[in-house]
Each structure stands twice: as structure tokens, then as C-alpha cells.
UniProtKB/TrEMBL annotation:
Keywords: mRNA processing, mRNA splicing, Nucleus, Spliceosome. GO terms for cellular component: catalytic step 2 spliceosome; post-mRNA release spliceosomal complex; Prp19 complex. Belongs to the SYF2 family. It comes from Paspalum notatum var. saurae. The keyword Repeat does not apply. InterPro entries: mRNA_splic_SYF2. It comes from the Eukaryota. May be part of a spliceosome complex. This is Pre-mRNA-splicing factor SYF2.
Length: 349
């Protein structure tokens, strides 16, 4: 309150020179610095003006609060009087708001209408008598403001609607997996309570078929991962899987082994480069197995269908594959930025 009382009134008359640049401020008091600046400005004006125009005009219109009042050759126009009136009205509003805050009233809050109230006032202004009294420029400016308000409202509604569309939707049909599991757990819990069992004995409610399916699933070994794909055990298991479906004639195999004593040769064998004769049927079986393996490999890495509705963001297949890897790694972090760039604006929080 002390500060408000200290600046409640303007400075005393005579302490501010009309030629000072701050003379329009009623609280300004000229010091030696102001007087020195006024003298320097007058000397500079006298030096720049010709000899014939150094005498000031006898009759001139200058307001003492004008910012250019120190210039003896300045004449105030409508612009000067308008600026002086705006400055005084601003000072009066500042004093009124200061007094309201000090008194603890809420008039300052009520004096500032929100955007909706301002829009309503502008919309209602077209029906008032003031619109008919406006000039052509004022009418055009008023109509432009109305159009801007309508565009702003439509843009805000479109942004809110788009935000609702971007939000994840609920379950449109059926029941979610989590809800189904919770309902199933409740049913099992009721059955266990009726039989005097707890949740740790839930396996006792399984049928024979369900228990066999569980055991079969548990006994299944997991697929090799990482470097385990190339170790000796994995390669041997793959060899056994390939030879499981191949028919072997054990009688012909034993006869061939009896005829050739070095059927299984060791490092000291002298039969270098000698190969036993293989029947054509065995060669055909091997070729057939290799072709089946190749067909199986092709079916495993099949070519995906092309989606015509998807946005094209690649220049070739290799670049498309790279973009998919990047999307899997960083897609969820850059989704909002990408949508904002395509939309041209960000959604409100």
C-alpha cells in the first residue's frame, strides 16, 4: 500500500520541461541529464537548419504533453493528440486496476471478458445501431473479425474431433482377452471353492485331453536361438529329421559291406579315389529329398502381398525393408511428430 500511495499523484508542475522527451509522463521530473540533452538537441537543430529558417514560427499548435514538444518547429497533428489521449487513458486504467487490487475487489477480473464473451459481443454488434454508423473501412474490418472468429471456432472443433479419432477405441465386438481370462478365473475359483480346493489345485479340474495337450506342450523342446542354430547338436538333430522319412534297404547295405572290406575306410587306406557303385534309385531318392527341402525353404520365406492402400515411403525393396525395421524400432516414438507434420498443427493437450 505504501508504494501505491507514493505514486498516486503526478509530479508537481514546473519540474518537467516541455521540451523534454519524457514530458508526456506526468510522473517524470527533469534532472541535469534532461536539461543537457535538451540543450544539445537545440544546438544540433540550429546547426542543421539554414539561416533563413532558424527563427521559430510565431503561431504554432503544440501540446505540452507531446513527445516532440521540445522541437520548436514541430506542430501537433491528429496523430499526436491521439497518442496523448491513449497514454492518458492507459494511465487511468492502470490507476483503477491498482486501486481495485489494493481494495481486494474482483472488478479487474470482470473487466477482461474471455474469448467467448468477446465473440458474442462482436456477433451481437452487427445487429446494433453502431454498425450502421461505421465507415466502410470499419465495416470491412468488423466483417473480417467475424470471419476470423468463425474460422478459429471451426479449426478448434476439427482439432478436437481429430484428437478423439486418434484415441484408442474400446472393444467394438466380442470380449477382450483380459476380460475373458478374468471371467474364467472367477468360474474356476467358484468350482474350487465348492470342492474345498484352493487355486494351487486348479489342475485337478482338467480333463484327460486337456492334461495330455499340456504335457505334450511342455515336453516340446524350444527352437534353437542365436548361435545355437549352428552348433553340432542342432545340426545332428536336423540330419536325423531329414533321414527319418528316407527308406533304407538294409539287405543291400549289408551285401555291399561284405563285398568291400574297406567299406568304412580309415586314414591308412590305400583305396584313394575309389568310390563304390551307388544304385540309380538311391541317387533319385537323394535328389528328391533335396528338392523337397528347397521347396520347404521357399514356402517358409514366402513373398508378402503388396498393399495398395499403404503410403509409399521407399524407392526399392531394400529401402522398404530398412524402413520397416526403423518403424518397428522407433515408430511409436515418432508417430505423434509425423502426424503433426502431416496435419500442420499439434493437437491440444
Amino acid at each position: 500500500m505504501g508504494k501505491v500511495d507514493a505514486v498516486a499523484g503526478p509530479a508537481a508542475e514546473g519540474k518537467s520541461q516541455p521540451a523534454c522527451i519524457n514530458s508526456s509522463n506526468p510522473y517524470h521530473e527533469c534532472s541535469d541529464y534532461c536539461l543537457r540533452k535538451i540543450a544539445e538537441a537545440r544546438q544540433r537543430l540550429d546547426a542543421e537548419l539554414p539561416e533563413s529558417s532558424k527563427l521559430p514560427p510565431e503561431d504554432r499548435t503544440v501540446h505540452p504533453d507531446c513527445i516532440n514538444a521540445f522541437n520548436p518547429y514541430h506542430e501537433c497533428s491528429e496523430y499526436c493528440f491521439k497518442r496523448i489521449a491513449d497514454a492518458k487513458s492507459g494511465l487511468e486504467r492502470g490507476e483503477q486496476q491498482t486501486a481495485d487490487i489494493a481494495a481486494g475487489t474482483s472488478d479487474a477480473v470482470e473487466q477482461q471478458p474471455d474469448d467467448d464473451d468477446a465473440d458474442k459481443q462482436e456477433d451481437a454488434g452487427a445487429d446494433d445501431d453502431g454498425y450502421a454508423q461505421m465507415t466502410e473501412k470499419q465495416k470491412k474490418l468488423f466483417e473480417l473479425r467475424l470471419k476470423m472468429n468463425e474460422a478459429r471456432k471451426a479449426n478448434q472443433q476439427a482439432i478436437v474431433a481429430e484428437k478423439k479419432r486418434m484415441e484408442p477405441r474400446g472393444e467394438s465386438r466380442g470380449v477382450s482377452k483380459q476380460k475373458w481370462l478374468e471371467d474364467r478365473k472367477k468360474k474356476i475359483g467358484k468350482l474350487l471353492d465348492s470342492n474345498g480346493l484352493d487355486m494351487s489345485k486348479a489342475y485337478m479340474l482338467d480333463t484327460q485331453e486337456t492334461a495330455e495337450a499340456k504335457y505334450k506342450k511342455w515336453e516340446k523342446e524350444p527352437a534353437p536361438y542365436g548361435w545355437d542354430v549352428f552348433n553340432q547338436k542342432t545340426l545332428y538333430d536336423a540330419y536325423k529329421k531329414r533321414t527319418k522319412n528316407i527308406e533304407v534297404d538294409m539287405e543291400a547295405y549289408n551285401k555291399t559291406k561284405e563285398v568291400d572290406p574297406e567299406f568304412y575306410r580309415d586314414a591308412s587306406s590305400l583305396q584313394y579315389g575309389k568310390v563304390s557303385k551307388v544304385p540309380e534309385e538311391n541317387i533319385d531318392k537323394m535328389v528328391k529329398e533335396l528338392k523337397e527341402r528347397e521347396e520347404k525353404r521357399k514356402s517358409f520365406s514366402r513373398r508378402r502381398k503388396f498393399n495398395e492402400d499403404k503410403d509409399i515411403d521407399s524407392i526399392n525393396d531394400r529401402n522398404e525393408h530398412f524402413n520397416k525395421k526403423i518403424e518397428r524400432a522407433f515408430g511409436k516414438y515418432t508417430l505423434e511428430i509425423k502426424n503433426n507434420l502431416e496435419r500442420g498443427t499439434a493437437l491440444p493437450d
